[in-house]
Amino acid sequence: TERVRYVYFSAYSNRKRGVIILVRKNIDFRVLKHYSHQEGRWVIVDAVLEGQKITFVNVYAPNTSQPEFFHEVCNIVRNIGNDNIIIGGDFNQVRDVYLDKSSHPRPVHDPLGLVDVWRLLYPQEKDYTFYSHPHSKRKLMDFFSTI
């Protein structure tokens, strides 16, 4: 649109997988480097925002093979070497097994030591971004984290 200066995305097909990072025109933003996954699973933008170096990551995690997926993303982020990281997206898993899921705990794999922004602001809130009507299950799988 007329308000967007930069568009970074990764897409697999027209109806499966895809992530995007959009940057408005009126923001002091300079891209240093960007990376994208061939199959629409992640996009990473290393940039300077308002004078601060920040790495932005948007993920769409697979339902299976998650350790390998997160290992790949974390290696790229570590190699960038930036301490300011904002990561968001659909992780297909939960961060807090008691607050973010209605059954069957399986916590998120987090080798970067990220802070869940939602959980920081609302430490005891039970809310969900996914609901399975056939299984009557709720999960908070989409979130933003930062270091």
UniProtKB/TrEMBL annotation:
<keyword id="KW-0464">Manganese</keyword>
<keyword id="KW-0460">Magnesium</keyword>
<feature type="binding site">
    <location>
        <position position="92"/>
    </location>
    <ligand>
        <name>Mg(2+)</name>
    </ligand>
</feature>
<dbReference type="GO" id="GO:0006284">
    <property type="term" value="P:base-excision repair"/>
</dbReference>
<dbReference type="GO" id="GO:0008311">
    <property type="term" value="F:double-stranded DNA 3'-5' DNA exonuclease activity"/>
</dbReference>
<dbReference type="GO" id="GO:0046872">
    <property type="term" value="F:metal ion binding"/>
</dbReference>
<dbReference type="InterPro" id="IPR004808">
    <property type="entry name" value="AP_endonuc_1"/>
</dbReference>
<dbReference type="GO" id="GO:0003906">
    <property type="term" value="F:DNA-(apurinic or apyrimidinic site) endonuclease activity"/>
</dbReference>
<feature type="binding site">
    <location>
        <position position="90"/>
    </location>
    <ligand>
        <name>Mg(2+)</name>
    </ligand>
</feature>
<dbReference type="GO" id="GO:0005634">
    <property type="term" value="C:nucleus"/>
</dbReference>
<keyword id="KW-0479">Metal-binding</keyword>
<protein>
    <recommendedName>
        <fullName>Endonuclease/exonuclease/phosphatase domain-containing protein</fullName>
    </recommendedName>
</protein>
<keyword id="KW-0378">Hydrolase</keyword>
<dbReference type="GO" id="GO:0008081">
    <property type="term" value="F:phosphoric diester hydrolase activity"/>
</dbReference>
<dbReference type="InterPro" id="IPR036691">
    <property type="entry name" value="Endo/exonu/phosph_ase_sf"/>
</dbReference>
<feature type="site" description="Transition state stabilizer">
    <location>
        <position position="92"/>
    </location>
</feature>
